[in-house]
Design brief:
Elements: E1 11-15, E2 19-25, E3 28-34, E4 38-44, E5 49-57, E6 62-66, E7 69-71, H1 79-91, E8 93-94, E9 100-107, E10 116-123, E11 127-128, E12 140-145, H2 146-154, H3 161-174
Parallel strand pairs: 4-10
Antiparallel strand pairs: 1-2, 2-3, 4-7, 5-6, 5-12, 8-11, 9-10
Helix pairs in contact: 2-3
Length: 179
Amino acid sequence: MKKLKIKPTDKLIYKNHLTLVQRPYGGRNYDVVISRDAAIMLYIDEKDRVYFAKQFRPAMDKQHLSLPAETLDKPGLTPLEVMVEGLEEECGVRIKKNQVKQLGKIVSTSGHDTEMVYLFVARGKGKYVGQRPEDDEKIKVVKILFEKAYKMVINNEINSSKTAYLIMYEKLRRLGAIK
């Protein structure tokens, strides 16, 4: 996991869960959010259902449907370990690490955020063990058949970019365009 890095030329504006700095470049100051990396997982069970976490997101000021995701803030755990644990915490499903494939990582929002997001896909049977949300989280698990979830992305009913990316990846895999 990367350590949050404030450059010597940055002007610190705010520091808490996220850090906001003004970063000079080309004669201008740019607002930059320095945040921890994260991970997200597309989990598809043996009945071809995708597991979503529906929860209120203050930044969007509404309920938001997206794939389970975690901030990489657990010392000593790899992104894979954090995400396997995150699936269990958010959706209540325990899977084995060998069910998971890491696809790589993507830049979250390159215009103003340092966050990199590790992408995972897992398929197959899991064991329901119950959710373990944090005290301030109210997460509703929503299971949607893959083809319906794909159509929801196409119709912009699911518009989380990282969620859409993983669902489109899986659709392309199923069409034989990727292995």
